[in-house]
Amino acid sequence: MAGLDGSCLSSRKICSLFNLDMKNTLKVERAKKDMTQQDLAGKVSVSRQTINSIEAGKYVPSTVLALKIARIFGVGLEEIFELENGD
Amino acid sequence: MATSMVLFNTRNIWLLKTRTKSTTIMLTKILLPHRYHLIGWILFLPFAVLLFSENYLSFSFPWLEFVASKNGLLGDSKENFTNEFALIGVFISLFLIAFSREKEEDEYIQKLRLDSLLMAFYVNTFILILGTLIFYGFGYLEFMGYNMFTIQLIFIGRFRWVLFKQQKNMLAV
């Protein structure tokens, strides 16, 4: 399933319609560092809405933003963002 | 020989690393500053009221009357430009509302923006086809008059609605 919080559970069809072929562990990484969505948003200079929709699986970030996020958490890109099975 | 080969390869790899400017920055550059959003809304209401009263109540400003063509068949002909004034006012205010930056304009907001623009064009085409089938003569002319605003209005409506829904979703989490 695309959304970590189950936002896409209700309709698989709609999820695939919007190209959600990626899952992420953003929420987990954030929890490890005890960071709020707002904290992270401020550090990578985007709006909180953006972080929120990435976590909800509604938005696939640009490469630049993904790299910035990975740098903030000090981990590799693929530890946070991962392709869904079947791609 | 081997060393030069390596050197050659390294240089090539260096050339292949392209530097890309983020598209977010590029799009932000062609949007208006955030403060124009409010100015747009303030201008929109009076100009819309003016346009309607000009159209349906034959209201006009006397100071907008100019001589349009000299020495015509019936002497000088005067034209009132209230209609043009109101139309241009509405166009400009809608433009300001639609294309000024959000307070936090980032890549996700811009994705919503472009999605909304695409949807506005889709709906506009649909309305255009529907109107062409339904109206003719002066009715068609009036329909086309209103149709001049559909792209802007649908874009603004859809974009605002998505942002509002997003905000509400976030508060619920």
Write the layout of secondary structure elements.
The complex is a heterodimer of chains A (87) and B (173).
Chain A: H1 12-17, E1 22-24, H2 26-32, H3 37-43, H4 48-55, H5 63-73, H6 77-80, E2 81-83
Antiparallel strand pairs in A: 1-2
Helix pairs in contact in A: 3-4
Chain B: H1 2-16, H2 23-29, H3 36-56, E1 65-72, E2 75-80, H4 82-98, H5 107-134, H6 138-147, H7 150-172
Antiparallel strand pairs in B: 1-2
Notes on the protein architecture:
The complex is a heterodimer of chains A (87) and B (173). Chain A is mainly α and 87 residues long. Chain A is built from six helices and two strands, in the order H-E-H-H-H-H-H-E. In chain A, helix 3 crosses helix 4. Chain A is globular and about 30 Å long. The two termini of chain A are 13 Å apart. The N terminus of chain A is likely disordered. Chain B has 173 residues and is mainly α. Chain B contains seven helices and two strands. Chain B has a two-stranded antiparallel sheet with strand order 1-2. In chain B, helix 3 runs antiparallel to helix 4, helix 5 packs antiparallel against helix 6 and helix 5 crosses helix 7. The mean pLDDT of chain B is 84. Chains A and B meet through helix 4 of A and helix 5 and helix 7 of B.
Structural features:
heterodimer, A: 87 residues, mainly alpha, two-stranded antiparallel ribbon, globular, disordered N terminus, B: 173 residues, two-stranded antiparallel sheet, 7 helices, elongated
Structure at a glance:
The complex is a heterodimer of chains A (87) and B (173). Helix content of chain A is 49%, strand content 7%. With 87 residues, chain A is mainly alpha-helical.
- Helix fraction of chain A by DSSP (H/I, runs of at least 4): 40-55%
The biggest beta sheet of chain B is recorded as: 2 strands, antiparallel
Major sheet attributes of chain A: 2 strands, antiparallel
Order of helices and strands of chain B: HHHEEHHHH
Put simply, the count of helices of chain A is 6
Low-confidence stretches of chain A: 1-13
pLDDT < 50 runs, ≥5 residues of chain B: none
Shape call of chain A: globular
Specify Rg of chain B, calculated over alpha carbons: 25 Å
The DSSP helix count of chain B reads 7
Largest interface: A-B, 16 and 14 residues
Q: Work out the oligomeric state of the chains in this entry.
A: heterodimer
Rg of Cα set of chain A: 12 Å
Which shape of chain B, going by the Cα principal axes? elongated
Percentage of residues assigned to helices of chain B: 55-70%
Strand order of the largest sheet of chain B: 1-2
Number of strands of chain B: 2
Instruction: Give the N-terminus to C-terminus distance of chain A in angstroms.
Output: 13 Å
Q: What's the mean pLDDT score of chain A?
A: 78
